Every structure is written in structure tokens, then in C-alpha cells.
Amino acid sequence: MKKVLVPLILLITMGLPSMAQQNKHYQHFEQFWFQYYNQTRISEKWGLMFDVGYRTKDNFVDSTSTLLARIGAIYHLNKNTRLMGGYAFFNAYPLEANIDIAQPEHRLWQQVQWQKDFRKLSLLQHIRFEQRWRKKIIPPDRYDDEYSFNYRLRFSLNLQYPLLEKKQAKGNLSLVAGDEVMLNFGKQVVYNYLDQNRIWAGMRYYFNRNNNLMVAYMYIYNQTPVPGLYRIFNTVRFSYFHNIDLRKESQ
Amino acid sequence: MKKTISLLIMLSSVVIAFGQVSKTKETYEQIWLGYFNQTRLSDKWGFWVDTHLRTKDDFTDSLSQFIIRPGITYYLADKTKLTLGYAYVNHFPADSHPETSQPEHRIWQQLQWHNNYERIKLMQWVRLEERYRRKIKDADELADGYNFNFRARFNIMMQVALGKKKFEKGSLAWVVNDELMVNFGDQIVYNYFDQNRFFTGFHYYVTKHNFLQFGYMNVFQQLSSGNKYRVLHAARVFFIQNLDLRKKHG
Questions:
Q1: Phi and psi angles of residue B5, each rounded to the nearest 5 degrees, phi first
Q2: Which residues of B touch A103 (CB under 8 A)?
Q3: Beta strands A25-41; A229-245: pairing state
Q4: Which has more confidence, B249 or A251?
Q5: ipTM of this complex
Q6: What angle, 0 to 180 degrees and rounded to 10, lies between the N-to-C axes of helices B2-18 and A2-19?
């Protein structure tokens, strides 16, 4: 099967750019993203984080596209700068109609994040480096023994503007907006060095200092590995942020 | 059209199974010379100009690009600036136009901000460009009209002061810099990723506000065909001048 398929596929993919005649093709999806983020501070310098997420597939409510869990450690370099690193597991149900099984992914990630506060506006930036191992699938429903591998670099910029005086007080509402660019690289990446761009805007509500909910509209522009094929996601994100502080002096 | 997209979608599942086809890279060695000037005229206004000359290959073999880029700067704050400008680029003869230069006109908008810490300085800008590149007819002739695309650029530069004097006259700083450029627009089909420029080197402060930058730059660029890439190894030498022509505050 593989012996016949591979040369055939190579032939088709290499011939495809000329067949497509410099046209781009788009697939559109509408999704809901639900995510819970936890950060627990255990000492002056150290903390732990985890988050879990669920994403629908299309028309906002149609089935599941992704389940994810991420864990990591946080090192507080100073008040405004953090180093983070960890592991993530993703289970992604392919958007291709002819695949019936989910694709598991193992990921390692490292991140540096820094924050800058202006009079009211605050700017949070992070750079994240990921190593992604995704299980190969033989359509429609079998797993290959191997994983595909690539690196990904993510640059994220988040703006927050509080509508009330005290930035994180109970009942405060903030406007939020941001952008994140993701770049693929590695031997197995051929066309899509740009993986995706995400841009979003929304609101953030503080239940109290340590609990807040962000609701945002996010537009994703994603280049697939197939030359000329792009995906556009219109998503609504619900993100709940929960901070716990276990340092002694603060109790 | 419908057929093509269903074929593409079928292929995308094949890619999941078997991975992508191969890519090719061409490598060049270049020298990049540049001069940057930012002059502040009043509390709110100033101007920008930078100019560049780049060689083509084997470090000293002919020229690849000349750029002149003036702009007007509005100071949102001392360390946060908006700049609107124009650029003229001359692309010296290359593969697709071996006997003639290709001119380019650009309009650009930029937000630049600085964060200074005790021993570290951080400079970032986000720039949007509208690029009009003259169409090519054949080897030695330009065609009428221009190709158009947008490009967004994200630039981040960190300096770490070396030695006792920090960012003062006669001091040295270590520099790490990365600039990512993303193409977009109707005419971009495969290379949304345009290029990444990674640089590391040093700043020598001639005075507090004027410094010489020198070091190594690696450029990784995706060409329009999508699976062809260009790698540049460049020796980069810039001179950066910051002038303040405001009357001294009393």
C-alpha cells in the first residue's frame, strides 16, 4: 500500500502547484473554544501551571475537534518576567472528512513571557518554542507506527485595558485584544513555514483578584501543509483563569 | 474549481499520513551596510530615514539591493513612536531580471517601542508595508504596472550592556535581534511566511546616542513558488544615529 501510494502522492503534490494555477483555496470553520487555565504559585521563584481545553469542530456546535491538556513549571525571573516549560497532550479529530480517528500529539514547550504596564494599558508578550510529535494516520481509521515531527515558534502579544480604576479588583471589566503568529519549521515542513495567525478581541471580567473569565472573538488564518490550501476559523473563546497563591507570607 | 478543492482536501489527509514533499535551498553570502537616523524636532514630531546597500554573493560579488526609506514620526511618548513613511528599493539584476534592475515603491506604517532596564534594553517594532514591485517583461525589460502585496514585520532587539559603563560613550553591548516578516494579499499564494532575520553581534557606543552595530545575520526566506528557500549568511554593519533638536528644557 505504502509503496504504491508514496510515489503517486509525490507526483500529485509536486504537480499540484501548476494545476492549481496560483489559486488559493479556503475551508471555513466556526468553533467554540473552552479552556481552563490554572497557575499556582508555590514560592517566590516557582510555580506550577496546567490548562485543559475543549474545542468544537464546525458550525459552532458540531462535534469535537480538539481535546487538550498542558502542564508546566513556572520560574519567576523577576516581577514582570517568567520562564516556563512543560508538556502537552492533544487529541485532534482531523478536519478531513475521510479520516475517522483522532490524531494524538505529544508536545514539549518552553516559554519566556514578560509584561509591561503603562498608565492603564498593560502589554503581555510571550515567545513559545514547541516540539511537536503527531501520530501518523493511514486514512480512514488506522494508525501508522511513526510520528511526524516539527518545531513551532509562537510570538504572542496581548493588550489589556481596564474600564475601572483598580486593575484586577472584583467586578472589574477589561477590554482585551491580541495577536499570535506561529511559525513551523523542521525537516518535514515544506510549504507552511507560516503555520497560522490568530487575532482576537474581547472582554475580561474579574470575579475577584484570582478568578477571571475572558470571552473573545478570534480569527485564525491557517496555512495547511498542502500547497495553496488555507483554513479560516471564526471562533468564540471562553477562557477561565484561576490563580492560586500558596506562599506563606500572603496567607 | 470544485474538483481542485476536493483533490486538495483529499491530499491534506494524505499529508497527515505520509508527510510533505521535499524542499530546496539556495545559499548566498552577503554584506549589508546600513545607516539609520531618527531626529526629534519637537515633543511630538520628528523624522526617520534609513538607507541600505547590500551585496549579492561571496560577500563582495556585485550588488543585490539599495534602499532609501524616509518617514515622519509622531511621539506618543518618549519611548513609543508612530512612523509613516515611503521607501524606494532598487533590486539589482537577479535571476528573473538578469539584465535590468527592478524598482519597488513602498508605503509603510510603524509602531516602535522601547523598554529600558538596568543592564538590558529592549526595542521592538511592528511595521506594515504596502509593496508595489514593478512587473518584469523579460531579461532586460520591465513591464507596465506593479505587483502588489502587504507585508507585516515584527522586530525585537535585545541589548545587554557589557562592562562597567552601560550604554555610555565608549561602551560595548551584546545584541540579539530577530525580525519576522509575513506576506499577505491576493497575489500571495504559497509564501505567507516571507522571511526571518536572526542577528547577533555588538553595539559600540560612539556617543550615548550614536552607535555602530556589527555582527552576523542569518536570513531564511521562502520564495513565491512555495518549496524553494533562500538562505543568506551576512556580515551586517549598521550605524545608528539619534538626534534631538529640541531646545533644552530649562
A1: -70, -35
A2: 16
A3: parallel
A4: B249
A5: 0.89
A6: 140
